[in-house]
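User: quick one
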Amino acid sequence: LLPVLAALAAGAAEARATSEGQLPGAAAMGTGTPPSPSGTAFEETRLHVFTLDYPHVQIPFEITLWILLASLAKIGFHLYHKLPSIVPESCLLILVGLLLGGIIFGAEEKSPPVMNSDVFFLYLLPPIVLDAGYFMPTRLFFENFGTIFWYAVVGTLWNAIGIGISLYGICQISAFGLTDITLLQNLLFGSLISAVDPVAVLAVFENIHVNEQLYILVFGESLLNDAITVVLYNLFKSFCQMRTIKVIDIFAGIANFFIVGIGGVLIGILLGFVAAFTTRFTHKIRVIEPLFVFLYSYLSYITAEMFHLSGIMAITACAMTMNKYVEENVSQKSYTTIKYFMKMLSSVSETLIFIFMGVSTVGKNHEWNWAFVSFTLLFCLIWRALGVFVLTQIINVFRTIPLTFKDQFIIAYGGLRGAICFSLVFLLPPAVFPRKKLFITAVIVVIFFTVFIQGITIRPLVEFLDVKRSNKKQPAVSEEIYNRFFDHVKTGIEDVCGHWGHNFWRDKFKKFDNKYLRRLLIRENQPKSSIVSLYKKLEIKHAIEMAESGMISKVPSSVSLSDYHEGKIKPLSPTEMENMREILTKNLYQIRHRTMSYNRHSLAADASEKQAKEILIRRRHSLRESLRKTNSLSRERPVLAVCGVFW
Amino acid sequence: PGVPQGSAPVTSLLSLAVTSEQIEHLHRRFKQLSQDQLTIRKENFDSIPDLEFNPIRGKIVHAFFDKRNLRQESDGLAEEINFEDFLTIMSYFRPIEMNMDEEQLDRFRKEKLKFLFHMYDSDHDGKITLQEYRNVVEELLSGNPHLEKESARSIADGAMMEAASICVGQMGPDQVYEGITFEDFLKMWQGIDIETKMHVRFLNVDTIAHCY
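Assistant: Done. Structure below.
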C-alpha cells in the first residue's frame, strides 16, 4: 500500500507543479501517466488486483471536490442559526478560502493556484448575472432607469478618474517610493477598482431586505457599470501601451462606450427574442425547454465577449426579455426547473468565487506599501461618498421622489467591490505594469474591507438608520385590483394634463407588445389580465392544497387541473365546469371555515389548519416572482372563461 | 354658474409649493380642454384621444366633477368646473416634498386615499358595497370582450372576502359584511406607500398631447 500512496502523492505534486498559476484541476490534459499494469515489452508484471489511477480522473475529481467543499461549507454556516444573520456568507466563504489557501501554502511551500481570470469571466460570472437578470423586477428597474444609468455611468467615471488622479498625486510624493507609477497606470487602477460588483452586492443585500427601490438602485448600478468598466479598462490599458495618445483616441474611447453598451444590450435582446420564438414550438418536447433558456443566455454572453462588448449587459438584457415571453410558452414543470437550476448554478458560482478569492490571497503575489494601500482604501471611500452625494443632488431635480440622505448613505455604503476587480487586476500584463503585485495587494485590501467591514456593519446600520424595509406581503386579488385601478387612474390623469409620464410610455410599449410581439413569440396568445391570472392561480392553489390535505373526497379525473398546470388552455366541457365549480364551492366553504377555526376547534383541527396555511404560504412565496406581471388588457382573441360561481 | 360655494379653493394641500410655472402649464392645458371657455363640462373630456382607451374613463371624468373631491360640503355632481376646481383635483397628485413632517405626510396620504375611495364609492354613501366593487372590477376588465361577466363577479366577490377577512377578521357564519368603509380602506392600503406612487410630474412645460 505504501508505494501506492507514494505514487499518488508524487502524481498529485507533479500535477500541481505543472498547474502553477492555474486552477487546480484545470491542468493540461495528459500530465498523468497511463496506468502501467501492462508494463513494457521487457518487464513482465503480475496482474494488479487493485490499481489507483488518479491522473486519469484528476480534473473532474478536483472540480467536484471543490464544489462539494464549497457546498458543505455553506451547510456548515447555516447549521448555526444566528451566524448568517450577523456575518454575510461571503465573509465566511472567504475565510474558508483563506484557511484552505493557508493549508496548501503551508503544505507545499509554494503559492496555491490562483483563480484563472478566464475561468471566472467565462464560467463563474455568467450564472450569477443570469439569475439576477431573470428575476429582476423589471417595472421598478425601468421606472428608476434614469437614476441607475446616471449613477452607473457618471458615477463610475467620477470614481475612476478621481481615484486615479488622487493616487497619482500621492505617488508623486517621493517619500513613499511610488514615483515610478505613471498617471495612466494610476488611471487604469482607478478604473478597475471603482466598479461596484454585482456579486458582492447580491451577497450582502440579500440578507438585509432594504426596500426594493434602494436595492434596485444599487444593484442596477452594479450591473450597468460593466459597460463603462470594460471601456475604461481597455482604453487605459491600450493607452499604457501606446507611445503617443492623440485626441482621436479619446473620441474613439467615447464611441467605444456607446458601442459596448448598446451593442451588448442589442445582442441580449435579439437572442432573447430568438429564445422566446424557439420555445413557441417546444410543446412536443417539454423536457429540453429549460436547456434553451440557459443556452441562449450563455450564448448572448459569450457572443458579446467575443466582440469585446459588455457581456453582463447582454446576458441581463437577454434574461429580462426571455422572462416575459418564455414563461408563457413553457410548461409549469419546465418553469420550476429553470428557476431552481438557475438558483443552484448561481449559488455554486458565488460560493466558488468567494472561496477562490480567499485561496488566491495567500501566497507570494504581494507587495506591501503602506502608503499606497491605505490611500487607495481612503480614496475609494471618499470618492464614492462624494460621488453619490453630488450626483444625487443633480438627479433629485429630475426625480419625483427625491432620494433622502438615508438613501444616499446606503447607496454609498453599498458600493461594494468584489471578484470583478479582483480578476481584472490579475489580467494586467506584468510587462507593462512592473508594480503589478502592489496593485494586487491594494485591490485585495479594498475588497476585504468592503466585504468584511461594510458587509458586516451594513445590517446594524440599516436598522439604526431605520431605513425602510421591504414588506413581504402575500399577493392578494384585491391588491392586484387596486394596483391596476390605480395605474389606470394615473394614466388617465396624465392624459388629462397632457403629460407624457412613465405610464404613457409603458402604455405605448404594452400596446406595441400586444399587437406584434406577443402574437409572434407566444404560442397561444391569450390576452392576459394580471387580475384574472392572479385570481386563477390563487384559486388553483387553494384547490390543490385542499386536495392534498385530503379535504376533498373526490379529485376530478378530468384534465382540468393538470391542464392549468401545463398551461394548456382550452374550453372546458360542462362536466369539467361542474367539477371546477364543485371544487371552488367546497373551497369557499373551507376558506370561511378556516377563519372561524381559531377559537372554536380542537387542537387536531388547528394542526391541519396550520399545515394548510403553511403550504399556502410556501406556495405563495415560491410563486411570488412569477406574479410580478403588468400585462395589459387587450381586445383580441378569446380567453378562457373562468368558471367560478361563488354563491 | 360654476363658481364653487366656499370660495377658498386654494387648500392647504395646494398651498404646498405648486410653482407658478406649473400653474401656468396647467392653465394652458385647461384652456385647451375648455376651448377657451371659463369652465369645463363633461363633454370636454371627450376631446382627449388617449383617454378613450382607458377602461375606467367614466370614473376618472366623474372624479373631476365629484363635489366631495372639490372640497365642498355638499354632495353630488357639479355641472361644470372652473380652473380653480381643476387645480384642486390636480393637487391630489402632487408629489411629496422632502421637508414634510410626519403629520403632514399622514394628512397627505389620507387625502389621496380619500380621492381613490370616492372613485370606488359611486353612490356617495361612504361605503363600498359589493355591488359597487363588482362594478369597478367589471369596468377594469371591460377591455376584454370575451371575459364573462361571471368571472368579473367572482373576482370581485373573492376580493371582497379578502377585504372582509382583513378588516373584520373572523366572521360568524351569519354575519354580513356591509361594505368597505374609509377606515377599512385605509387598512387595506397600509402596506402600499401611496404617497410616493400617486403623483404626476408637471415638469414638462410644452403641452405635447393634442386634442381634437
